[in-house]
Design brief:
By secondary structure, the protein is an alpha/beta fold. Helices cover about 55% and strands about 10% of the residues. The protein is built from eleven helices and seven strands. It has helices at about 15-25, 45-50, 60-70, 90-100, 120-140, 155-160, 170-180, 205-225, 225-255, 260-300, 305-314, and strands at about 5-10, 30-35, 55, 75-80, 105-110, 150-155, 185-190. The protein has a seven-stranded mixed sheet with strand order 3-2-1-4-6-5-7, sandwiched between helices. β1 (about 5-10), α1 and β2 (about 30-35) form a beta-alpha-beta unit. α5 packs parallel to α8. The chain is elongated and about 85 Å long. The N and C termini lie close together (about 10 Å). The relative contact order is 0.12.
Length: about 325
């Protein structure tokens, strides 16, 4: 089985060599790829000295790197991790085994049981739960740690993934891709450690948190347009009715409509409400077509279990 370890990297000279060696030890037959994202330190030199295949992606952002890695690399199983030495390399064989034996498309390494408070701070833990809960409410409750960067993928997941995001919101896009196509997925608890001394996190808590929240909203609109625009319809309709009630009461009591601007505004808002509902109905049909195309692309590749059966026969 061709196994590729994918490591997106930006200024990780303190940790990348150790990460590469640990995954080489855990997965001796795997090819380890480090994709550098405009590092200003010795990340490239350190990765090469450790034996990784080093490539570069000039477009800044983790999402851009993931798009490039998924497009460039051919494998049967993909392991994606970060270059900061926080994820547990010895867990990778078990995650791959679970993917193949249970015929899954993605296995996520959950960090929620870690005892290292300096590695997964309380604020980050709360933000993770909040954002994961938002995705669970909209798309389905399948993940407890949606934002983990430690994942194992099947080939059919990787080659059907559109990869539209640019930054850290790529993990959200990965989760929603699996949920929207109802792929078989799982989570396993994995140890999570602190960065080595001198290594600095690239995550900006509030900025990236708002970007992830924005991505959830955009994916809600794109993947479930009828529900999204129905909420808009309800909101606009309520505003219209609130504006109309005083006008109607005055008309019933006096037979007059003295507040024409309010009446016209109420009618205009109600028209917008029905336009929103009509847009949701139309876009829902478009989305179904897009999902069918993605599903067909997904089904064009063999599942992990099918590959294992063929390999066993060979």
């Amino acid at each position: 089985m061709r196994i590729a370890v994918l490591i997106p990297c930006y200024n990780e000279e303190k940790a990348i060599a150790s990460v590469v060696r640990k995954f080489q030890a855990a997965l001796p037959t795997a090819q380890v790829y480090v994709y550098d994202n405009n590092s200003a330190d010795r990340t490239i030199e350190e990765a090469r000295s450790a034996g990784a295949i080093v490539r570069s992606e000039p477009l800044q952002g983790k999402g851009n790197v993931v798009r490039r890695m998924f497009a460039d690399i051919e494998a049967d199983v993909y392991v994606m991790t970060d270059g900061d030495e926080t994820y547990h390399a010895p867990s990778a064989p078990g995650m791959i085994q679970k993917l193949v034996e249970e015929n899954l498309d993605m296995v996520v390494g959950s960090r929620l049981k870690t005892d290292a408070t300096e590695a997964f701070r309380r604020g980050h833990h709360f933000g993770n739960r909040l954002l994961t809960g938002a995705v669970a409410t909209i798309f389905g409750d399948r993940f407890q740690d949606m934002l983990s960067g430690y994942r194992v993928f099947s080939r059919r997941f990787v080659k059907s993934f559109p990869a539209l995001s640019a930054g850290f919101e790529t993990e959200t896009e990965l989760a929603v891709h699996a949920l929207s196509l109802r792929m078989p997925v799982a989570e396993v608890e994995t140890p999570y450690g602190a960065r080595p001394d001198g290594s600095i996190s690239k995550l900006r808590t509030y900025r990236d948190g708002f970007r992830i929240l924005w991505m959830i909203g955009m994916l809600f609109k794109e993947e479930k347009p009828l529900a999204f625009f129905s909420l808009s319809f309800v909101l606009l309709a309520v505003i219209s009715l609130l504006l109309a009630v005083p006008v109607i009461v005055t008309y019933v009591e006096t037979g007059l409509v003295p507040r024409f601007p309010t009446a016209f505004l109420s009618v205009g808002v109600m028209i917008l409400a029905f336009l929103s509902l009509a847009s949701g109905i139309i876009l829902d049909n478009v989305t179904r077509g897009r999902q069918e195309v993605k599903r067909l692309a997904y089904l064009s590749f063999a599942s992990p279990a099918e590959w294992a059966v063929r390999h066993g026969k060979d």
